[in-house]
Amino acid sequence: MSNCRVLSIQSHVVSGYVGNKSVTFPLQLLGFEVDAINSVQFSNHTGYPCFKGQVLEAAQLGELYEGLKANDLNNYTHLLTGYIGCESFLRKVKDVILDLKKKNPNLVYVCDPVMGDNGEMYVAKELLPIYQQEIIPLADVITPNQFEAEMLSGVTIDSAETAKEAMETLHKMGAKTVIVSSSDLGEPDILVGFGSSVANGNTSAIKVEMTRIPMYFTGSGDLFTAMILVWLHRHPDNLQVSVQYYTSFYSLQHLLHLVC
Ligand SMILES: Nc1ncnc2c1ncn2[C@@H]1O[C@H](COP(=O)(O)OP(=O)(O)O)[C@@H](O)[C@H]1O
Ligand code: PXP
Q1: Which domain holds residue 99?
Q2: What ipTM goes with this model?
Q3: I want to staple 6 with a disulfide (CB 3.0 to 4.6 A). Which of 52, 73, 78, 249 is the partner?
Q4: Residue 170: which residues within 8 A CB-CB, separation 6 or more?
């Protein structure tokens, strides 16, 4: 058993598996203690024709965090954030990051800047500048998909060179490790993941090719980020093994399970 405790702040859905529903059990299976704060509570994910539910605001996050703090329960080794439903909540997440880092200077913050996919945003556009200016500068690891990496960096990713340029821009924003979970570089059967890490002034970069299943999956990015958290904890100096672990093992198992 590890002594790892994760605070996971992301969505809850009643039906299906995205956000906290998709990461809690896998993290627990891998020996991580998980405390979940739900940023929204929706009937289902936003890719359905409609969804109903509630979006938490800053005050509600503040209240939950104060409760943890008052009982000295805010002891975490990792913070994981994903889908956030509104601007005020995301600004409050910044206060939580700063407070958790004050309490544990070694806290690892893994941020999935969930905003959209395939050219479309599924959160309010006001979240973008907050990620760029306030959240990413505090992140140890970020895991945007291609669309999110392009929005955040302003660089269109259409080759390994432009992926590198986008990741360098995100490093300059403050993220120590950048992983582009998947990108479409024009090959119909292949998705390409990229990773880049800066430590002691040196940058190490990796590229992983994956066989594309001709379907669209929701929630795979959430699970991907949680597994990156685990594998970077187990292999802090080996980005390759961390990304490959998910792409070669988890992803296929998870996706085939969904398909079958
Ligand atoms: N169509 C697919 N075929 C194969 N693997 C996929 C597919 N969609 C997602 N994955 C796997 O899930 C991971 C995360 O998915 P991705 O689409 O990049 O994230 P997001 O859900 O945030 O857009 C990818 O790195 C890949 O391993
Ligand atoms: C409520 C909710 N949470 C999380 C996600 C993120 O899903 P993914 O892992 O595919 O980026 C979505 C995407 O529709 C969503 O609607």
Answers
A1: 5-259
A2: 0.97
A3: 78
A4: 136, 142, 144, 149, 152, 153, 178
